[in-house]
Amino acid sequence: MAGAVTVAGAQPGDAAPVAAPVSPAGAAHRIAVVGGGPGGLYAAALLKRLDPDREVTVWERNAPDDTFGFGVVLSDETLGGIEHADPAVYAALQAEFVRWDDIDIVHRGTRHTSGGHGFAALSRKRLLAVLHERCRGLGVDLRFRTEAPPAAELATAYDLVIAADGVHSLTREARADVFRPTLTTHRCRYIWLAADFAFDAFRFEIAETEHGVMQLHGYPYQAATDTSPGASTVIVEMREEVWRAAGFEDADASESVERCAKLFADALGGRPLHGNNSSWLTFRTVVNKHWSHGNTVLLGDAAHTAHFSIGSGTKLAVEDALALAANLQEQPDIPAALAAYETERRPVVESTQRAARASLQWFEELPLYLGQPPRQFAFNLLTRSRRVTHDNLRLRDAHFTQSVERDFGCAPGTPPMFTPFRLGDLELRNRVVVSPMDMYSAVDGVPGDFHLVHLGARALGGAGLVMTEMVCVSERGRITPGCAGLYTDEQAAAWKRVVDFAHAQAPGTAIGVQLGHSGRKGSTKLMWDGMDEPLDAGNWPLAAPSPLPYTPASQVPHALDTAGLAAVREEFVTAARRAAAAGFDLLELHCAHGYLLSSFLSPLTNHRTDAYGGSLEARLRFPLEVFDAVRDVWPDSRPMTVRISATDWADGGTTAADAVAVARAFAAHGADAIDVSTGQVVADERPAYGRSYQTPFADRIRNETSVPVIAVGAISSWDDVNSLLLAGRTDLCALARPHLYDPHWTLHAAAEQDYAGPGVVWPLQYRAGSRRPQTGRTDTAKPRLSLGG
C-alpha cells in the first residue's frame, strides 16, 4: 500500500473510516459491484471493457429474471453516450426500443396531443438481459441470488467497491455517518403496473373521483407486432389522503390492480392491468452529502433519486456509470477519480433533482389546475419540470403551441410576454417587471443622479413596469444610511424628477414605488461593506413587533406599542401622499423579507400576545391597517400591490396555506395583485435555490385564489417568462439580476424573438440597434467516453 486517505465529511466521534489504497486508477484491478441493476451492470461492463485484465464481480441478491417495474425510458442524450462508449450494447438495445414522439393529455373528456418529444423505451427485463449478456461476454463474474459481503469487508479485499444497491442501499446506511444521506418522503402514493397492449403515445390521464383526483402515467415499452399486442407501463398515482379515502389502504394487491383498471377503463380500452410484486409506494428523494468513502463509491439510486414523472432513474444510473468509468481512466489514482466523478455528476444530478421536484410537486398540487382550459392545462403539464419550455415546445410542435397562445390571447406573432395586462385602471403593455432592487446610493434618503440613470435606463429598456427599490417611510425605517426615502419634500422632488424622465422618455412604461420600513433589519452597513452587519457608529434605534434581533450580532429592536403603531402607520400614509404627488403609476406595500410589516406576519418574528399577535388573523391586523390607510390616500385610479414572503424557509414559519390566506386577505382589502417572493425573514433560513425556485408559491396563490400575481426568483430568460405565463402560473414576471446584467433586457428579448409589435417600443435613439447582432459559431461537446468498436 502506498498510503491511505480519509474521506471528507466524517464527524467528530465517527468510527475510523476504512483506509483506501492510493494507487493509480488504472490499478483498480479488483472491482466489486454491489447491486445488479442497470447502473451496476453497465459500470461493470465498461470497466471490464476498458481493461480486460480486471477482475470485476457483481453481487445481486435476486435471480437473473427477477425485476421490478416494467418499462425503462432513456433519452437520446443517454443513448448517445452508450453508443460512443459501447456500440455493442447500443446495437443490442437499439433492436429492442419502442420509439414515439407524442404525448397525450386527457382531462375532463378532452384529449390534447403534443408531438415531437422523442422517447425511447424497452422492457426493463430485456435491458437487464442485454447487460447480463454483455457482462458475461466480457468476463464479468455475475453472482445472482447472493448477498454481497458488507461494504467494509469488500473495501479491504478489493481496490474499488461500487455501491449500486438502490434506494434502500445497505452500503449507504452502513456508513450514513459519512455519506450523510437525506431522505425526503413525498405526498403521493403510486403503484407500478403493466397493460398487455402498446399505447401509441406517452399518456397522462386524470380521473376526478368522489374521493379525489387520481392520475395515470402510461407509455409503451414493447411494440405491437402481427403476433403480439405489445406492452405498456402504467403508473397510477394519487395523494395519500385520496388513497386512504378510496380504500386502497385496506385493499390487497389483486384488488388494487383490478380497481385501477376500472378507474382508467377508457384509457385502457377496457383491458386489464397486471402487477409484478406490485404494491403501493411513496416516493423518496435521496440526497447524499458525500458520494464516496475511502474506496467505496455510490452510484445510481444509492446516491440520488429523481421522481419517475421525468423518467430519470435508469438514465441517471447509466450516466453515472459512464462518468465513473471515464474518470477512472483519466485520473491518476482512485481517490482523484472518485472526487472527479462526484464533481462532474453532482451538478447534473442536482439539476435533474430540481426538475423532478418541480414535476412531483406539480402532480401533488394537481387539483389546483383542474379548472384551467384544457389546452392550457396540457401546456402546464408539459412544462411542469421547467425542462420543457415554451420555446422548445414551439420547435417540437408549433401547431399545438400556437393554439395555446391563441387561447391565451396572443396576437399572431406575439410572444406571451408581450401581451398587455391590466392592473386596475393601469394597462401594462407587456408582462415584464423590473423587480425592486436596493441600490444603497442615496444621500440623506435623497435619490440622486445614480437613481435617475439606473431607473431611467431600465425604463428605456422596454419593461412594462419599472419598480423602485424599497423606499423607506422614515429615517429610522431605513435599512442602511444609503437607503432612499419619501419622508421629506426634498426626497419627493428628487423622485418626481425620476418619474418625469421615465414618463417623458419612455412613454408607455409604468413606474411604481415600493414603500417599506426596515423594522429589525435596519441600522446596518451598506451591502458591499457587510450585509446585515450593524453599523460601527451612528446607529439608530430599531422597532419591530417583538424584541427579537435578526442575528445574534444585530441590535435588539423595541416592540412597538399602540402609539408606535399609529406613528408608523402615519409615516406610510405621508409617504404614499408624496408618492402620488410625484406621479408614480403604482404603489407596492413591502410586507416581505423580514422588514417591519413582514415581521408582523411571520410566527417566527411576531411573539406578541396582544391583538396584533398569535393567530394569523391577528398577525395580519397591523399590515392590513397600514394597507387600508395607504389605500385611502392613494388615488383610486392607480393600482396597489403587496409583496409577501410566501415561506420563511424555516421550520415553524409561514406555511403555504398561510401565504394563500395572506394573499386572500390583502386582495379582499383592495390589493390589485400579490407580488410573491420568499424568505429573508430569519437569518437561519434554508432556501431550496434553483431556476424559478420561488414561482411555485405564486402559482399556488394564483390558482387557488384567482388573485393576480407577480412571480419572482431566478427567472432569467424570456423563455422562462413565456412558459410561466402561458402555463397560467403567473400574470407578471419580475426580474432583478437580469436587469442588472442588461438594462435593455426586454428590448433584447423582443429582438431575439423577432418581435416588433406594440408590446415593446425601442426608443428612437436606439432603434438602429434593434436587430440582433450576428454571433460566431459554437461547436457541440464531444462524447463523454468514446471507445469505438
TrEMBL record:
Residues 417-750 form the NADH:flavin oxidoreductase/NADH oxidase N-terminal domain. It comes from the Bacteria. Residues 768-789 are annotated as: Disordered. Residues 31-353 form the FAD-binding domain. Gene3D superfamilies: 3.30.9.20, Aldolase class I (3.20.20.70), FAD/NAD(P)-binding domain (3.50.50.60). Pfam families: FAD_binding_3, Oxidored_FMN. PANTHER family: BLR3436 PROTEIN, NADPH DEHYDROGENASE C23G7.10C-RELATED. NCBIfam families: PRK08255.1. This is Salicylyl-CoA 5-hydroxylase. It comes from Streptomyces lasiicapitis.
